[in-house]
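Tokens as discussed.
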């Protein structure tokens, strides 16, 4: 028989695709990252990646924080950059901001400062009564000393005390007392500290008194004294030689005899300016 034909050769591999047929890809960075990543598949089926996604910087300084001054930041606001601010007068805190994913993450705050000590002593009052914690808004009050009146209080604000009210010298109410035979005090219902009023005396007395209001009490000077009797008594028929003198104090006495042909005598006592 004739010999068998030789086997067919294996098929040749397909030719590589032309350069225009190479595959390219691109990707979008996640929020908070920036970049322009891409990939190209070469003729051998390998990917070549270019670009990357890096954490985005912050474009501006952090927004203003309440009760603080301007932020102090580095010249470059790359991811991880930190800024800090100083609190305004009357506030305390340690605010700072860190750039992360293109945004600022702020920590800390400026809060109203507490008061370090109780208020200073107030004139004419006792010690302040304050809460144990002197935070902003805390209030204290004090009681006025004897002879003074008022309702002082203090509030902690911006690290300092704002005091309202005061202790002022008390007025005197009504008229003074303690002056025997005084009449018609002209004081009224209330007299301010330092005010004065006067009084005369009832019939048969001389003098008068002046009262000055101090610490809610009357200080009285002066007095009413019983009038003396002037000269000699009269009204005793046949009396002679009264031994009274020109003036006789209240309670004083003098005597007289009788003219010739009469017996007896008389004694006169001075009372309320009359014999």
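Sequence:
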């Amino acid at each position: 028989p004739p010999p068998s034909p030789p086997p067919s050769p294996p098929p040749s591999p397909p030719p590589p695709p032309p350069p225009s047929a190479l595959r390219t890809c691109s990707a979008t960075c996640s929020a908070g990252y920036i970049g322009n990543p891409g990939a190209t598949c070469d003729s051998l089926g390998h990917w070549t990646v270019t670009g990357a996604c890096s954490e985005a910087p912050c474009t501006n300084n952090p927004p203003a924080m309440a009760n603080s001054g301007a932020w102090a930041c580095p010249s470059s606001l790359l991811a991880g950059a930190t800024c800090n601010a100083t609190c305004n007068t009357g506030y305390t805190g340690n605010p700072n901001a860190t750039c992360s994913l293109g945004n600022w993450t702020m920590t800390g705050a400026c809060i109203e400062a507490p008061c370090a000590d109780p208020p200073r002593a107030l004139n004419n009052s006792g010690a302040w009564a304050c809460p144990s914690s002197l935070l902003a808004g805390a209030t204290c009050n004090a009681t006025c000393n004897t002879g003074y009146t008022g309702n002082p209080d203090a509030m902690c604000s911006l690290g300092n005390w704002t005091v309202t009210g005061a202790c002022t010298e008390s007025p005197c109410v009504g008229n003074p007392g303690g002056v025997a035979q005084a009449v018609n005090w002209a004081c009224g219902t209330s007299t301010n500290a330092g005010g004065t009023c006067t009084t005369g005396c009832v019939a048969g007395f001389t003098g008068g008194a002046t009262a000055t209001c101090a610490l809610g009490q009357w200080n009285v000077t002066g007095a009413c004294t019983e009038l003396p009797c002037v000269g000699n008594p009269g009204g005793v028929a046949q009396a002679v030689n009264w031994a009274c003198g020109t003036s006789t104090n209240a309670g004083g006495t003098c005597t007289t005899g009788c003219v010739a042909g009469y017996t007896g005598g008389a004694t006169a006592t001075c009372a309320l300016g009359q014999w």
